[in-house]
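Field: sequence (string)
Field: structure_tokens (string)

Example rows 1 and 2, in order.
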Amino acid sequence: MSDPASGASTGITSTPDVRSFNPFRALRYGDYRFVWSSETLNLWASEMETIVLAIFVLRDTGSPLLVGLIGALKFGGTLLGPFYGLMVDRFDRKRLQVGVRLIGLSLAVLLTVLIVTDMLELWNAYVIVAAGSMVRMLDIVLVQTLTADVVPARSLHGAIGLSRISLDGGRVAGSLAGGVIFEVLGLDWAYVMITVLYLLATLASVKIDRRKVITGTGFSGEQSGQPGRSGLPGRSGPPGIRAGLAEGLRHVMRSDVLPGLIFFSFLIELSAFPIVNGLMTVIADELYGLGGAGIGLLAAVASAGALLGALALGVRRNIVSPTRVMVLGSIAWHVLMLVLALPLPLWGFSLVLIAWGFSGGMTFVAMVVGLLRAAPAEARGRVMGIRTLGIYGLPIGLLLGGWIAEEVGTQAMIGVLGGIGLAGTLAAAIVWPALLRRSPGAPPDLPVPGNDQKDKK
């Protein structure tokens, strides 16, 4: 890396980023600016798509359960998460990222054509969303692994905080834009905008430098300039599929914190994330009778709170114990969820929703930082791939929440999901006490292979 003050290439991470209170300084790290740009544009498109499709299904069917179903279908490819992690450890990550973006763009174009030509039927939307879910998990593993590739360990919390800010900023902008454009201009113009954002995300991914795969302490093929392929330290070739997946699982099971972190990733997807991934439409419609713009505004309030929470953690100089922050944040998150289940006026619900989002933003950033710090570099893709299995909690939570809202009521749905999350958090703290221990601190900054040459330019 080059020293920003002197312009000299030092080969190690510069320290100003650690001392800074500005999470956007993570954009200094070579390719991260393109990883972040592609991710942000893709998130904005995805969040617009979530709110637009939820409104479309609710108005077409009147069924909260079917609203939850179309949200759940977005995560149908989660079962392939460990296999995707092995792909990320083995193959050229830049090519994988561009391929994922092209598939997402193609599906958006197809859905836009069906809408503009008045040929869209409800089952078309379900099939296209399910098809896109097959690569969604690969995208999640890729983005997180690419971030850990190009951003040093001590600065990861800033980069992950910035990523979370992008997600919640995308939810604010996407929810508002999706709801307003749907209400004012209709479904066709909303999807034209979504498709343009997917196109821009694809173009940004093309700018990412070719990212070779880490094997132990460096990049295989680094000296020859050939793309690396991951393998076990000391081996000349990559492990087979079964051996590679088994090795990743062994890395998880040998850790005193990784099993607890992966459980948490399942728990919060099950209990909290359904609210902002489809069921906010049901809450706004059933409890407060809001239209498209109002639904988008209420979703934006939750995302604004989460954005502030991610920013509060991202601007810290260092996070000594991200797992402890995660546990305490999760307790606050789910207690506030129980408050949201009370009969509140709209203004009161909105105020609590901001605090709820703030707790969630801090919890999520701390969880991802804990995972990336604890995962060994040579198996990081596989560990994050195993972590994506936790995302199966989201479709389960969407279906469970939609069913409870339809059969019992929306307030009961919020209360049940919040109670599940609070009980699970307390149980996890007992089963994995290492999550609450004070960590010795982040590991020292390590060289980011490939960036030093580029920073000289």
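Row 2 begins here:
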Amino acid sequence: MFVSVFDMFKPGVGPSSSHTMGPMVAAARFLDALRASPFTVHGVKATLYGSLAFTGVGHATDRATILGLAGFRPDSYDHIAAGTVLADIAATQTVRPDGLPALHFDPQTDLEFNYDGPLPGHANGMILAATDAQGDIILQETYYSIGGGFVLTEAELAAGKDADDGPPVPYPFKSAAEMLEMCAASGQSVAGLKRANELSRIGPAKLDSRLERIWQVMRDCMDRGLGTGGILPGGLKVKRRAKPIHDALLAERGMNLTAPHTINDWMSAYAMAVNEENAAGGQVVTAPTNGAAGVVPAVIRYWLDHVPGAVPSRVGEFLLTAAAIGGLVKHNASISGAECGCQAEVGSAAAMAAAGLCAVLGGTPEQVENAAEIALEHHLGMTCDPVRGLVQVPCIERNGLGAIKAVSAASLALRGDGTHLVPLDSCIETMRQTGADMSEKYKETSLGGLAVNVPNC
């Protein structure tokens, strides 16, 4: 089993990896299928199901699907160009993807929200279809956005396809227990195993440069959030809070007026800055999802800016360790809020961040596994109930608290010797079972929880 660090950490567009990035990726894949098809295509249609339908407008799923059918991709998304293209599509009922003729697409009639229930494979399902000159369907595909920007066709999901189908890697651990056994047998750290696996696919210079770019995009996103005020879009009139909190913290520095727990405010500001950018539709990095994108970079920033001895050259080690944990969660449970609630998003992110921090602070593989388990265990049962379907309330603050929990979990693990009662594998399986038992109204449908108990208009 191999999930690349660059699958877990992908630059993309907000507000949601599963509801924005995923549908855009699915549309891009469908266009590739049309380019390879012998049929003469005249138009395209899209139908959204399950969580993609219930919270689609709040998560910009409609916008992402339309832009995807027009040829946009998350990793090269141009916000200004997108606005121009959307206006043209609305005026002409036509999309113009490269390598294909102009295709009829009326956003008012050719994009359908189906609220009857999810498709059988996953809560985030969509069907894309191509039509001939008479409007008859000549090609159709079902896609599932399974979290973190990962997309599978119906056939791929049924076949149990994972994120990677390439050649074998040197350390193919499928569980935390296997990971620890391989660390012990090889003398490698968790990051060492992960690095060896990555190097079986790309060279060391490319690996390091791509890791540096991931951190650069994370840091740039955070800096934009820390420097931007105002009101977030969507109608809830949520104020951006990261900038004023950060400004106040900077002003208080050196005044000997702050309590030790103020460090929590720094971490919250860092995390909230990222998720405010995400809520505004800016560029973020899935970590492992957009909705949880603030936790890992906030903990890295905390380590670099506030912990003596931290050096930027070890950020790659942090990311590799975090990705190893995220891959285990994805493979054995889920990183999708629509499948398992927010325990799968912020909970997974906190486990990843705790593991990464523990590693760069000198933790053993056993302590790293313990840190991840502590962080995930104390997110078990967390619901995904965004108000008005927007990735704002409670999502933005939740990332701040996830970062704080991650740091606490790493610290607790480092105080022990790595032995503990609940294995990470058991915690991940518990999360999977809890998600399966959780009512659909608490899994990113905005049909329960805060979404129905907080006035949102």
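free_text_note (row 2): The mean pLDDT is 96.
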